[in-house]
Design brief:
Layout (H helix, E strand, L loop, with lengths): L3 E5 L14 H18 L4 H6 L2 E12 L9 E10 L5 E10 L4 E13 L4 E2 L5 H9 L2 E7 L1
Parallel strand pairs: 3-7
Antiparallel strand pairs: 1-3, 2-5, 3-4, 4-5, 5-6
């Protein structure tokens, strides 16, 4: 598997006054796709709640290349670009591409796992998180941290 891919449907509320997709909508689509992928890999919100951990982001950045409009057919491609061997720290990238494969935007997030009871980074990384991220497709320029 090269990446997790999903077609995106834009809503009227995703547009800004210039009639293209507003900047914050990209972040919302990225966050939703990450949670859907983790869920698909068995790392559901219920599991995270039962085991008292969840993802925490340190950085979220988007580089915008081409504007997106309401009628555009767009696919989001998601993969890991960096990760520690124990999956305690990771980076995930989301590429927004038109159906002709034109790159329109790239979101990069850097994160880790937080113990929701102690309110600090989880140590050790919960095994189910290690398993899920080990299955996650990796970018061509993947870096092991």
């Amino acid at each position: 598997m090269v990446s997790f891919t999903k077609e995106i449907s834009f809503r009227w509320s995703d547009l800004d006054p210039n009639f293209h997709v507003r900047h914050s909508a990209y972040y919302d689509f990225g966050a939703q796709h990450r949670i859907e992928i983790l869920n698909e890999l068995g790392l559901t919100l219920r599991v995270m709640q039962e085991q008292s951990f969840g993802p925490v982001l340190f950085r979220e950045e988007c580089v915008f290349r081409k504007e997106l409009k309401l009628s555009d057919k767009i696919f989001i491609h998601t993969k890991t670009s960096k990760m520690k061997a124990d999956a305690s720290r990771w980076s995930i990238i989301h590429e927004f591409r038109r159906e002709d494969d034109t790159l329109c935007a790239t979101i990069t997030v850097d994160g880790a796992w937080m113990d929701t009871k102690l309110r600090k980074l989880a140590s050790p990384t919960p095994e189910i998180a290690v398993q899920a991220l080990s299955i996650f497709p990796k970018s061509d320029d993947f870096i092991g941290l």
